[in-house]
């Protein structure tokens, strides 16, 4: 029988106090996994712990900045001691800066690359040795439409998420022989705090032009929700996807398949 169960598995989802990470971790818990998450600030970890508790999930929350290699190594060692060796990693923590490229400083560009690309490298390399010892592992990198497409103001984010797609393929290539599968999820436009500025109502009550643009660009004719990512994430974390490796699963309501609305 096809096996989507995560019973007995330890799953680390980074930056999962709220938003997409929270929904993915919730789905993993519902499928039987023990949840570990981190965030940069204690207050966010506390908020996350309360939100998981409300859903009946006994999650383990830690403070850790995923860009800090020493802190990540210490965090993963602590999780292995206190909770167990990690079977599933979701590199979810991410930031975006919407700044026209010629106005963006190199420091701002580096900061986005640091969180969205360097950190998945740092966290993956911290958990892979444990996965090799266990004889299996699943790594899911949260990519983006911007792993494939560009647009005004998101040069650093697109460079990072494009790089993350290739890091995904490389981890699959390098560690597939150890029964580790590394895949990406490319969410479409999802209603979370990260995209809130793109959905703000205008002073006259009308839709933000970008909001209207995305709804028109999406065959599903709506923004995605974090819950839309739950099923795909459970699939990629479970034994059901054991021969899926180095793939990016776009969960975008059809955006990438669509040329756009024809003019009337
Ligand atoms: P979000 O609401 O902004 O949540 C991101 C989380 O990552 C926050 O909890 C944030 O904490 C945490 N984080 C940021 N930097 C961190 C660091 N250095 N160390 C640890 N945690 C850190 O974002 P989201 O929309 O749920 O997005 C989650 C992931 O999906 C991101 O990688 C994003 O790029 C990607 N994504 C989002 C969309 C979308 O439409 N929303 C689409 C495609 C891909 P703070 O609150 O403290 O910053
Ligand atoms: C933007 C958005 C996107 C999304 C997402 C798309 O400004 O264009 O924030 O980049 O968050 O990553 O998949």
Question: How would you summarize the topology of this molecule?
Answer:
Elements: E1 10-14, H1 19-30, E2 34-39, H2 42-54, E3 60-63, H3 69-82, E4 88-91, H4 106-134, E5 137-142, H5 155-175, E6 180-187, H6 209-217, H7 230-237, E7 248-251
Parallel strand pairs: 1-2, 1-4, 2-3, 4-5, 5-6, 6-7
Helix pairs in contact: 1-7, 3-4, 4-5
The protein binds NADP nicotinamide-adenine-dinucleotide phosphate and D-gluconic acid.
What does this protein structure show overall?
The protein is about 40% helix and about 15% strand. With about 260 residues, the protein is of the alpha/beta class. The chain has a single domain (about 10-190, about 225-255), classed as NAD(P)-binding Rossmann-like Domain (Rossmann fold, 3-Layer(aba) Sandwich), CATH 3.40.50. The chain has a 7-stranded parallel beta sheet with strand order 3-2-1-4-5-6-7, with helices on both faces. The mean pLDDT is about 100. The chain binds NADP nicotinamide-adenine-dinucleotide phosphate and D-gluconic acid. The site of NADP nicotinamide-adenine-dinucleotide phosphate (NAP) has 29 residues, from helix 1 and strand 2.
Question: What can be said about this structure in brief?
Answer:
With 264 residues, the protein is an alpha/beta fold.
Bound molecules: NADP nicotinamide-adenine-dinucleotide phosphate, D-gluconic acid
Radius of gyration: 18 Å
Question: Which structural class is indicated by helix and strand composition?
Answer: alpha/beta
Q: Determine the number of helices (DSSP H or I, runs of at least 4 residues).
A: 7
CATH T-level fold name: Rossmann fold
């Amino acid at each position: 029988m096809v096996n989507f169960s995560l019973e007995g598995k330890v799953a680390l989802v980074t930056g999962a106090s709220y938003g997409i990470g929270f929904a993915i971790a919730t789905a993993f818990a519902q499928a039987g996994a023990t949840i570990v998450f981190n965030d940069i600030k204690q207050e966010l970890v506390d908020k996350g712990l309360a939100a998981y508790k409300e859903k009946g999930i006994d999650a383990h929350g830690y403070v850790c900045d995923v860009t800090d290699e020493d802190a990540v190594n210490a965090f993963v060692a602590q999780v292995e001691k206190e909770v167990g060796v990690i079977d599933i990693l979701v590199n979810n923590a991410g930031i975006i800066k919407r700044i026209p490229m010629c106005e963006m400083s190199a420091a701002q560009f580096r900061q986005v690359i640091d969180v969205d690309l360097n950190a998945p490298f740092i966290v993956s390399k911290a958990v892979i040795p444990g996965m090799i010892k266990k004889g299996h592992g699943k790594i899911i990198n949260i990519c983006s439409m911007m792993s494939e497409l560009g647009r005004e103001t998101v040069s650093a984010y697109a460079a990072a998420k494009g790089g993350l797609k290739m890091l995904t393929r490389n981890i699959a290539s390098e560690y597939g022989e150890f029964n580790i599968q590394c895949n990406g999820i490319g969410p479409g436009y999802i209603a979370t705090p990260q995209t809130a500025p793109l959905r703000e109502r205008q002073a006259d009550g009308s839709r933000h032009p970008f909001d209207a643009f995305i709804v028109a660009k999406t065959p599903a004719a709506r923004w995605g929700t974090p819950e839309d990512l739950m099923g795909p994430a459970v699939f990629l974390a479970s034994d059901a996807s054991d021969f899926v490796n180095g793939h990016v699963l776009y969960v975008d309501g059809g955006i990438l398949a669509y040329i756009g609305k024809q003019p009337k």
